[in-house]
């Protein structure tokens, strides 16, 4: 199953809806007094390259979708935002609007746009300068000052997938959280396409490389990690239109083992029960990607996470403060072809992090 081609964090007291192409929220994420606590949003905004329009129905509505994604970000007021699939010029403009820049004055460049130079403090991995290779689509926005920033492009990607033509990897930043240093990595792992078993093995290699690299850069400090992992939380029932089973997938367990740390959300986390970041049943935009054979009609799963990479010190905690949420409350904007104007085929999530 092609998760990226058909698709590719917890907040407090939020109700998200879309009306007339605009997202509104019942309340923002509350501020916390403890200087070592902050909130992180992971948001795959599905702004895919214009060179591959068949991946994203409604290319003429890119700007509408970016405007709606901006409203989602602003209304939910996370301290740090990790964007995935921010490939387009519209996505770049989104991160440079006055409202976004005022809220998030500290930003990285897109991962994989450059392979050397002064945009990052260091470059690692297999970064291609080919004119036919696109960026990695990952960008980090922060309210906190970024004191270090490092880029990784993965050594491994499937030659049978579109990921082979992208500099996918991770951005790693050191944040000054009100006087406390915090390390955070934003990433987007290999998608499933023509060879899902090979793609799964590549994701494991990417996670291993990410952990080794980030741990070295941080000097062994624990690291918060966020993004679209393309790792399903639930086992998939291929005999029932790819519906999720109740048991946790072996791939998810393997991903946590490789990270040496936890990924959130988890089904045992009460507020995340029966919520999904990619849902072809509930999300009208995701539903546009149904295949002709309808084998994906029931596909829904958790693919996006906020978690951690184990370091030498105590791992970050992810407190369930009044119930974090996957923001799965898109509704179709009013007007003609409203389903094409929904911000993304993914739902964002926000999670509190406590150091």
UniProtKB/TrEMBL annotation:
InterPro entries: Endo/exonu/phosph_ase_sf, Endo/exonuclease/phosphatase, Sph/SMPD2-like. Coiled coil: none annotated. Keywords: Signal. GO terms for molecular function: sphingomyelin phosphodiesterase activity. Pfam families: Exo_endo_phos (PF03372). Residues 64-245 form the Endonuclease/exonuclease/phosphatase domain. Residues 1-25 form the signal peptide. This is Endonuclease/exonuclease/phosphatase domain-containing protein. It comes from Streptomyces albireticuli. The lineage of its organism: Bacteria, Bacillati, Actinomycetota, Actinomycetes, Kitasatosporales.
């Amino acid at each position: 199953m092609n998760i990226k081609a058909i698709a590719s964090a917890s907040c407090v007291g939020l109700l998200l809806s879309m009306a007339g192409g605009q997202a509104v929220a019942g309340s923002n994420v509350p501020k916390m007094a403890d200087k070592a606590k902050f909130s992180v949003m992971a948001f795959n905004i599905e702004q895919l390259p214009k060179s591959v329009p068949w991946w994203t129905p409604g290319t003429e509505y890119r700007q509408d979708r970016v405007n709606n994604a901006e409203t989602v970000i602003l209304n939910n007021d996370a301290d740090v935002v990790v964007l995935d699939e921010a490939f387009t010029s519209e996505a770049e403009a989104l991160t440079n609007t006055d409202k976004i820049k005022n809220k998030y004055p500290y930003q990285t460049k897109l991962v994989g746009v450059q392979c050397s130079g002064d945009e990052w403090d260091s470059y690692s991995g297999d970064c291609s300068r080919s004119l036919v290779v696109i960026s990695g689509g990952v960008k980090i926005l922060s309210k906190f000052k970024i004191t270090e920033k490092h880029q990784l492009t993965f050594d491994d990607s499937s030659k049978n997938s579109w990921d082979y033509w992208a500099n996918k990897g991770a951005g790693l930043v050191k944040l000054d959280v009100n006087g406390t240093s915090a390390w955070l990595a934003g990433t987007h792992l290999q998608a499933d396409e023509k060879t899902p078993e090979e793609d799964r093995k590549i994701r494991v290699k990417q996670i291993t490389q990410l952990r080794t690299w980030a741990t070295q850069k941080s000097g062994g400090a624990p690291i918060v990690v966020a993004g679209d992992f393309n790792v399903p939380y639930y086992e998939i029932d291929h005999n029932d239109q790819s519906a999720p089973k109740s048991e946790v997938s072996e791939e998810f367990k393997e991903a946590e083992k490789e990270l040496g740390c936890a990924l959130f959300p988890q089904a045992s986390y009460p507020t995340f029960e029966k919520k999904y970041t990619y849902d072809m049943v509930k999300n009208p935009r995701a539903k546009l990607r149904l295949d002709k054979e309808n084998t994906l009609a029931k596909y829904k799963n958790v693919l996006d996470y906020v978690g951690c990479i184990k370091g030498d010190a105590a791992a970050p905690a992810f407190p369930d403060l009044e119930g974090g949420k996957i923001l799965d409350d898109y509704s179709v904007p009013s007007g003609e072809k409203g389903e094409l104007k929904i911000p993304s085929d993914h739902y964002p999530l926000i999670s509190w992090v406590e150091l």
